């Protein structure tokens, strides 16, 4: 199994100490997180996209560009890019720029997002979200793979022989499809034979497994090999301690604080409390052995090759503690027991000379 650390850049006062990051401190915290993730051997670092408090992640390409400047190996994910409300021309330009500056380390996860506050900000209704996502996704694919694109649709003005600049460094920027609530996302992913990333955050395993099963069925329908499906999964929250009881006691204030926010309540989690979520939901709270056992259980249901975790909301010292424990006590076991070939090839890293000289273009390695 491969591992990604991600953040929605949630900035709430600490539930136990009352410690509050300024906006600038939170941005610095994110950069430190990413550098630590690379040092600890995580395979990817992701920034989600939200457009309202308590989240500061309204500009993932800007944040990930700063991450790219302070790291050298770790892949950069968008978890997720809310493509349903964004102009594909702007997305194509911003993320191709990031791909160039990062040396070809970008992988994009697209989705409609799960926070309804972004719809009025960008001028579409919630009822239009799926049609909007599909149209914008298809245009983005063309802008990255074709030149002189001529196009006409519903959600932006027509294009006439447009070639966006810069072009991506990678021959094809990998696109994953975020999945949380509807078969419309799994259908789109299956149609194009592209990887799926299940959010696996707020509901019981059966809900997400049904969407993954649908994705595999539709892969076969569209002529793709479902046996080669590439799937990633979120994991709710992470908190490791020597015993389940200690982990529950230490994490409960954080859980209660976040689930009191309007953003969390919008997701309508069916779990009555943290104990119920630990027993019947996706959160990874307990001893390292217990967390390994739970991840293995979810892998048996999902067959995922990539796992993403988050330490949002914890104190700075606890973030470090949790990442170090996960990297030292959980990840090695899962890498051994659940081997994954995803990302086995190194990212496309190029070193440009100070004075460009004519040369053959670098060979591009496949992502998977």
TrEMBL record:
Which key words tag this protein in UniProt? Monooxygenase, Oxidoreductase
* Location of the Luciferase-like domain: 9-304
- InterPro entries in the cross-refs: Bact_Lucif_Oxidored, Luciferase-like_dom, Luciferase-like_sf
Biased composition (Pro residues) is annotated at: 355-368
The annotated region (Disordered) lies at 348-368
The cross-references to SUPFAM superfamilies, in alphabetical order and at most eight, read:
Bacterial luciferase-like (SSF51679)
Protein name, per record: Alkanesulfonate monooxygenase SsuD/methylene tetrahydromethanopterin reductase-like flavin-dependent oxidoreductase (Luciferase family)
């Amino acid at each position: 199994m491969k591992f990604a650390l991600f953040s929605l850049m949630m900035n709430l006062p600490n539930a136990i100490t009352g410690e509050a990051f300024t906006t600038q401190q939170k941005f610095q915290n994110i950069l430190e997180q990413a550098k630590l993730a690379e040092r600890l051997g995580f395979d990817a670092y992701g920034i989600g996209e939200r457009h309202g408090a308590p989240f500061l992640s309204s500009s993932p390409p800007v944040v990930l560009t700063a991450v790219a400047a302070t790291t050298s190996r770790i892949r950069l994910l968008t978890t997720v890019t809310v493509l349903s409300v964004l102009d594909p021309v702007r997305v194509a330009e911003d993320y191709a720029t990031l791909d160039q500056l990062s040396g070809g380390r970008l992988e994009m996860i697209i989705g409609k997002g799960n926070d309804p506050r972004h719809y009025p900000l960008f001028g579409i209704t919630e009822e239009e979200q799926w049609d909007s996502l599909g149209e914008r996704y298809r245009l983005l694919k063309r802008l990255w793979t074709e030149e002189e694109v001529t196009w006409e649709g519903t959600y932006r003005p027509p294009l006439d022989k447009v070639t966006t600049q810069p072009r991506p460094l990678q021959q094809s920027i990998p696109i994953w499809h975020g999945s949380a609530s509807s078969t419309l996302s799994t259908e789109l992913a299956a149609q194009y034979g592209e990887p799926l990333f299940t959010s696996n955050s707020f509901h019981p395993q059966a809900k997400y497994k049904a969407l993954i099963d649908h994705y595999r069925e539709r892969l076969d329908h569209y002529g793709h090999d479902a046996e080669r499906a590439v799937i990633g999964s979120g994991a709710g929250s992470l908190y490791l301690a020597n015993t389940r009881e200690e982990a529950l006691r230490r994490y409960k204030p954080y859980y209660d604080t976040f689930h009191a926010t309007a953003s969390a309540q919008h997701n309508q989690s069916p779990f009555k409390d943290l104990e119920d979520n630990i027993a019947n939901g996706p959160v990874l709270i307990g001893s390292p052995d217990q967390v390994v056992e739970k991840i293995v259980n979810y892998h048996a249901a999902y067959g995922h090759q990539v796992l993403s975790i988050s330490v949002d909301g914890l104190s700075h010292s606890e973030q470090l503690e949790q990442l170090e424990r996960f990297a030292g006590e959980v990840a090695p076991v899962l890498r051994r027991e659940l081997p994954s070939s995803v990302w086995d090839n190194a990212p496309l890293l190029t070193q440009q000379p100070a004075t460009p000289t004519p040369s053959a273009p670098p060979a591009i390695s496949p992502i998977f």
